[in-house]
Amino acid sequence: MTLLPGTAPIAVPRPLPAWVQAAREEAVRPQPKIRSGQHRRALFADPHSVARDLAENVTTAWFSARGGSEIAIPIGVVAALSLIAPADDKGPDLGDQLLSKTPEELAELLRHIWSMHWIRRPDLIERALPFHDWLNHGDPAPDLLHAAHEAAHAAINSGLLDFTGHADPIFRDGVDILAGLVMNMRSKAQRAGNGEFYTPEVACDLMARVLLGTQTDLTPGMSFHDPAAGSGGMMRAAAQYMRELGLNPADFHWYMNDIDPIAVACCAANAIVWGLGPNVVIAKADSLAEPEWPTRALAERAEIIAHRDRTLDQAMTEAAWRRAARLLDQLTQPLERTA
Questions:
Q1: Does the predicted model carry a pTM greater than 0.85?
Q2: Nearest-CA neighbor of 252 among 223, 211, 216?
Q3: Angle value at C-alpha 19, between 15 and 20, nearest 5 degrees
Q4: Which one of 171, 197, 268, 288 is CB 3.0 to 4.6 Å from 124, fit for a cystine?
Q5: What residue ranges do the domains of the chain occupy?
Q6: Tens digit of each residue's pLDDT (9 = 90 or more) over 204-231
Q7: Would you say 159 and 42 are in contact if contact means Cβ atoms under 8 Å apart?
Q8: Which of 37-51, 60-74, 99-113, 162-176 has the lowest mean pLDDT?
């Protein structure tokens, strides 16, 4: 075929395939917000399955990141995240906000969580010291921050916030998240050496129903004692059963003790998550050697609260003096002369 000078072949456009045209239209269409991870509320998720998967995923994330043998740190990260909840269910997704933080920002957030709860419940936060002590001595090492960051991501993506972030406490106390994590973090030999034996939650629920009886058997103001509480599983079951009966666990007194400091810290964090109320006393003692542990725990609790009150009073006084000093400086400043 020959072409005349200065002429070009006439190009006949071919129609685009239907799938290409659909892809182009989809690309320019506004897309809904995509949430990263699996932290969206699962309406029909089994809480026991979530707790089991969370324990495995957090354990794998921590040791894969070479976090070390200080297992109180990743358990404390999960405990701290359990203490926060979305301010507004219709607002920005809490999981996305947490997942977007850098390791340094996450550490600062954890400090803030523990500090705010110390103001409200210093008696419980002091018992949870193994969970947040690593944040109280300067800036943690980058490797430790990275491992804690990985553990936090594993917990959120495993569905932690679906349960601990629920507004209704009857959903929050449906499962003991921390108990399974402790069991998973420790080897079988360690658990046997410490005499730790996990009581299945089904057994705890059955024992609570048998021991507590009916609503007429429970009177507000009654006390419940567990001298070998572990992470507080029996108290969780009792509180859940009370709510089923229409009672408020905050109207009762809860005494928990364990010889293991990590178990004691779990009790303290769980008491807040499960909404056990203001009448919670937690001790770290050998209940066989010290049968009067509740008396000592009460005295320590009173001293911790008194220390909180003194600290806040001092902080408020110093803030008032600073405001007064600034006001005095403003009043004594020479007036500017205007021409």
A1: no
A2: 223
A3: 60
A4: 268
A5: 47-86+95-301
A6: 999 999 999 888 889 999 999 999 999 9
A7: yes
A8: 37-51
